[in-house]
Design brief:
The structure holds 2 protein chains of 2 kinds. By secondary structure, chain A is of the alpha/beta class. Chain A is built from 11 helices and 12 strands. Chain A folds into 2 domains: 241 residues, P-loop containing nucleotide triphosphate hydrolases (Rossmann fold, 3-Layer(aba) Sandwich); 71 residues, no CATH class. By secondary structure, chain B is α/β, with parallel strands linked by helices. In chain B, the strands form 2 sheets. Chain B has an 8-stranded mixed β-sheet, with helices on both faces. In chain B, strands 2-1-4-5 form a 4-stranded antiparallel β-sheet. Classes of the chains: A alpha/beta, B alpha/beta.
């Protein structure tokens, strides 16, 4: 499979009183064509900022990409101007946001919002765009698509709005779909519908998905590969099967054992002590050291780098340094 | 914890809570939102009853009606045998409120931002005129320490704390009056997973220490399975199924429970069998205009003609396994 997106050493900083706050601090990963990659982490881990950096949306909220590159096929997105971005947003890369309640324009009908994208990117005539919009709505499971075209967002429920968002996001057959917590605000039965739908559509159009979520159940159902983030850094990168079978990083292990499971019993949940440090107050050594049950002396002073473990998985932890050295 | 032969602490008998819909010039009543529509169950001392359901199913309204934040439209709420459904506010405060407390979902909205932790946690003592000033302050520090916060935090304001810490404050506040029953409405759903586990563990420890009874309302089926002894499933204001948690999760009878359980994504180990997922069609109907007959028949994969006509009775299909479905009558 060829690589679609490659992110290298991405650093996105925000500034408060000229003090840099490293929200994303050296993130590397790639997504192949047709692959679904999940970006997992708790709030404050930088997963959403990573996706906004790819979409070129951090500048407007005061952030700045300090270093690194984002390559979409052969284009370097970090050198893009706002005008360049307008050509690819919605067309080659599109995004589904977390809040279906706030991400649609409340004063435009659903029809107007879908046709807008088609008219802008595909140069369609209004009539043609309308026809395509109805098809898209049918594709995402609306039986009365014609009526839905005339409705305003407040008339639809959360699940319906999220499906409209998916229809808009897929309207131009993008190469990459970024889904930022697409099902978090939805009920489980509706979540199942939306996940099923995303899977079907992506198989049909060979779209790659970057799925951002904190729900490990969703990851296990929908993703091929998982990237675990903590405090703006990638701490582990593995296939779904490997990660759930044998988590390497103590943080990943903590995450997996802290969730109650529906098909079994755990006597006591294994809570990770403490809480995520804020990006302006990071520990000097490994960022997970203060919460890590396996922390060693050097973890408090030295920052581990991302090591390649056997079987091609990467992990940022001193525990695997020895094995990594043997490998190379 | 075995709660089988313990005393009943709270009992609901066919409780209904309707909210009127008003419209027009004179704000005449034109209909009802049937948020809770005939729910009966009982809570035994020391047990945890989980209530699950999708948003809009009435689980929060049921919780709030139980503590009499809402006055039920119909039906009886018996707290230790006493009917509290019609008590006045004053009588409630004197006899009931001390014994039933609530933990709310949003730890950012449920604490007064202008008050220090000390005055937030102390307030119930003031209301009920308990202890001297000094004792009150000592109690506050004791409680803070018990929920895992440093007693020196008492002088700080809520905004200085993270979500998980605030939820601990909410729990400390609920514990001030030594209640017997705590109604927890989605207490962990606003928290990150690693913090969620801390709060769940804390609630379990406190239950053992103070012999608390919990009513745990949540949409997260895995969390409810972990913490509860018995679980009730609600849909459109009605209880669909209620039984012990092992029975419910291993052998769900109601088609809605089956669909609900199958739609929860699970972390799957390599080689394990993929479960058959029942994807429900459509959305939750509006509680202002619920379907006739069984409220679930519009989305039910196994609906029969009788389901459109008759409301199924909520009855015991197997020993202590209650279900409201025509398949089992």
């Amino acid at each position: 499979m060829s690589t679609l997106l490659e992110v290298n050493n991405l650093k996105t900083y925000f500034f408060r009183k000229k003090e840099p706050i490293p929200a994303v601090d050296g993130v590397d990963f790639h997504i192949s064509k047709g692959e679904t990659v999940a970006l997992v982490g708790e709030s404050g881990s930088g997963k959403s900022i990573t996706s906004l950096s790819i979409m070129g949306l951090v500048q407007s909220s005061g952030g700045k990409i300090m270093d690194g590159s984002i390559k979409l096929e052969d284009k370097d997105l970090t050198s893009f101007t706002e005008n360049d971005y307008c050509k690819i947003r919605g067309n080659e890369v599109s995004m589904i946001f977390q809040e279906p309640m706030t991400s649609l324009n409340p004063v435009l009908t659903i029809g107007e919002q879908i046709t807008e994208v088609l008219i802008y990117h595909k140069n369609m005539k209004k009539k043609e765009a309308r026809q395509r919009a109805v098809e898209l709505l049918q594709m995402v499971g609306f039986s009365r698509a014609e009526q839905i075209m005339k409705e305003y967002p407040h008339r639809l429920s959360g699940g319906m709005r999220q499906r409209v968002m998916i229809a808009i996001a897929l309207s131009c057959n993008p190469k990459l779909l970024i889904a930022d917590e697409p099902t978090t605000a939805l009920d489980v039965t509706i979540q199942a519908q939306v996940l099923e739908l995303m899977k079907d559509l992506c198989q049909k159009f060979n779209t790659s998905i970057l799925l951002i979520t904190h729900d490990l159940g969703v990851v296990s159902e929908a993703a091929d590969r998982v990237i675990v983030m903590y405090c703006g850094q990638v701490v582990e990168n593995a296939t779904v099967d490997d990660l759930f079978l044998e988590p390497l990083h103590p943080y990943t292990e903590g995450l997996l054992t802290s969730i109650p499971v529906i098909d079994g019993e755990i006597d006591k949940l294994n809570a990770i002590k403490g809480s995520v440090p804020t990006p302006d107050n990071l520990p000097p050594g490994c960022r997970f050291a203060p919460r890590c049950p396996k922390a060693m002396d050097k973890c408090w002073t030295n920052q581990p780098s991302l090591l390649t473990h056997k079987s091609g998985r990467t992990v940022r932890c001193f525990l695997y340094e020895e094995e990594g050295a043997e490998q190379s | 914890m075995t709660a089988a032969n313990q005393e009943t602490i709270l009992e609901l008998r066919d409780v209904k809570k309707y909210f009127p819909i008003r419209s027009g010039l004179f704000q005449r009543k034109v209909g009802d939102v049937k948020a809770v529509d005939g729910v009966s169950f009982s809570l035994k001392k020391g047990e945890t009853l989980g209530i699950v359901g999708e948003s809009g199913c009435g689980k929060s309204t049921a919780g709030r009606t139980m503590i009499r934040l809402y006055k039920p439209t119909e039906g009886q709420i018996l707290f230790k045998g006493q009917d509290i459904s019609n008590l006045s506010e004053e009588k409630l405060r004197k006899s009931v409120r001390k014994n039933i407390q609530m933990v709310f979902q949003d730890p950012f909205a449920s604490l007064n931002p202008r008050k220090t932790l000390r005055s937030i946690i102390k307030e119930p003592f003031n209301t009920h005129n308990m202890y001297t000033m000094r004792e009150r302050n000592e109690k506050v520090e004791e409680l803070l320490a018990r929920v895992g916060l440093h007693p020196s935090f008492a002088g700080r304001y809520p905004h200085e704390f993270s979500g998980g810490q605030r939820q601990r404050i909410g729990i400390a506040r609920a514990l001030t009056l030594n209640p017997e029953l705590i109604i927890a409405d989605e207490p962990v759903s606003a928290l990150d997973v690693s913090i969620q586990a801390q709060v769940i563990n804390l609630m379990e420890e406190l239950q053992e220490e103070f012999n608390l009874t919990y009513l745990f309302i949540s949409h997260d089926l895995s969390v409810v399975r972990h913490i509860s002894d018995r679980v009730g499933v609600m849909y459109l204001g009605k209880m669909m199924e209620l039984t012990g948690k092992h029975e419910l999760y291993d052998n769900p009878l109601h088609p809605y429970t089956q669909a609900l359980l199958s739609s929860v994504p699970v972390t799957r180990k390599r080689g394990s069998v993929k479960r058959e997922r029942i994807v429900l069609k459509g959305e939750l109907p509006s509680p202002a205009n619920p379907p006739k007959g069984c409220v679930f028949h519009t989305r039910c994969p196994v609906a029969k003609p009788i389901c459109k006509e008759q409301i199924p009775e909520f009855k015991e299909a197997a020993p202590s396994h209650f279900v409201a479905c025509h398949l089992y009558s």
